[in-house]
Each structure stands twice: as structure tokens, then as C-alpha cells.
Amino acid sequence: MDHVPRGPAPETAAPDLVPDVAPQLRALRRRRGLTLETAAQRAGLSPAHLSRLETGNRQPSLPMLLGLARIYGTTVAELLGETPAERDPVIRAGRSEPVEADGWIYRQAGGAGRAMQCLRVHVPYATRADIVRVHPGEEWLHVLEGQVRLALGETVHLLDPGDSAHFDSLTPHRIGAAGHAGAEVLFVHTLLQSPAAELCLGGGAPHPR
């Protein structure tokens, strides 16, 4: 019997695996006001490939679903047509344990699974070794106690209690306290659906305090 080599796995999946994904992809893209070409470019796909996903002629892989969910400002669950559970709008003090990494201590101040991630953060003293960060999204911070040194590009701002800053996260930025005692800030960013481990502003591995 001749050996027949196996080719790569077909790109399509069984049609009943993700029945709602095609119409959801199309509806969410239109709801965001994105053309097929723009959405495909942001997702790293060809317009023809995205069109096939939206018509159900191709089934997306999980990485594709994750990428499209971020672009459309939603979750994979919504893409699959699942109804989200009702969220509690009130965040009680002491509801979540503080997490620490590299002197940064943060507490969740908002609900999980939201487009905006809200934190109360203890910011340690700034050093030259602090990481300069660049990533998609927006950030907003409000100083509660202490003084914060915020570097945006080549400009350094000193923020006192009551001061706020709101900036595009694609601007190279570095945040640190100006005093050795550190600073307390309220911090909001739009990194969609980030797990708690990714919210830490420090460079080390986060761990409960």
C-alpha cells in the first residue's frame, strides 16, 4: 500500500463548533464603525480572510478570536454569543487582596472584565532603572498622596496631590514617586480584559501581600 502524506489540517472547523461567531464578528465590526479593510489590517489578516470569517466560510482560531475581541472592545464570550453574567456595580473595600511586585502595590478598584481597568496603586520611589513602557490604550492617574514623577516622551512632569494626567499609552512613559516614601494614586487604563497579573506596573512577578 502506498503511503499518502498527510497535508496540514484544514483551516475550517465543524460548522456547529462556533455557530454565532460569523454574524457576531460582522455585527461588532459594523457597530465599531470599522471597514472590512481597516479591521483586517488591525487584526493582521487579509480582507478576504476576514470576509470569509464573517460569512462562516472559515472558522477562526482562538488567537484570531482574542485579537478580534481586543480590536472590537469586547470579549471572546460575546463573540461566541454568550450572555455575560450580571455584574455587581459596587466594589467593597477589602474585596480583593493587594498584590505586590517590585515595590508596586495595587488593589483592584473596579470590576473584572471591563474595558476600563481601575486600580488604587502604591507607587515606589522612581529610579533610573524603572521600565519605560509603550503599549496600545489610554491611561489616567490621579495623585492621592505624595508626589509622582511622570515621564512622557522627553518631558518630565511632577504631579502633586490632586493633580491628574491622561495620556496615550503609545507615548513612551515611565511612572514613579518623587519621594522615598512613595505615592498613592488612582489609576485607570484601557488594556482590555487584562488579568490581574498583567495589571501590575512593576517589572517583577506579582504576588499577594
* Secondary structure: number of strands: 10
Category by helix and strand content: alpha+beta
N- to C-terminal distance? 65 Å
Instruction: Provide mean pLDDT, rounded.
Output: 78
Main sheet summary: 7 strands, antiparallel
- Main β-sheet, spatial strand arrangement: 7-4-9-3-2-1-10
Helix and strand succession? Answer: HHHHHEEEEEEEEEHE
Helix content: 10-25%
Summed up, the helix count is 6
Spatial shape? elongated
Radius of gyration: 22 Å
Q: What fraction strand? A: 15-25%
Low-pLDDT ranges: 1-19, 192-200
Summarize the structure.
With 209 residues, the protein is α+β, with helices and mostly antiparallel strands. 22% of the residues lie in helices and 25% in strands. A hairpin with a 2-residue loop joins strand 5 (148-152) and strand 6 (155-159).
Description:
The protein has 209 residues and is of the alpha+beta class. The protein contains six helices and ten strands; from the N terminus they run αααααβββββββββαβ. A seven-stranded antiparallel beta sheet has the order 7-4-9-3-2-1-10. Strand 2 (104-108) and strand 3 form a beta hairpin. The longest helix has 11 residues, at 21-31. It is elongated, with a radius of gyration of 22 Å. The N and C termini lie far apart (65 Å). Mean pLDDT is 78; it is low at 1-19 and 192-200.
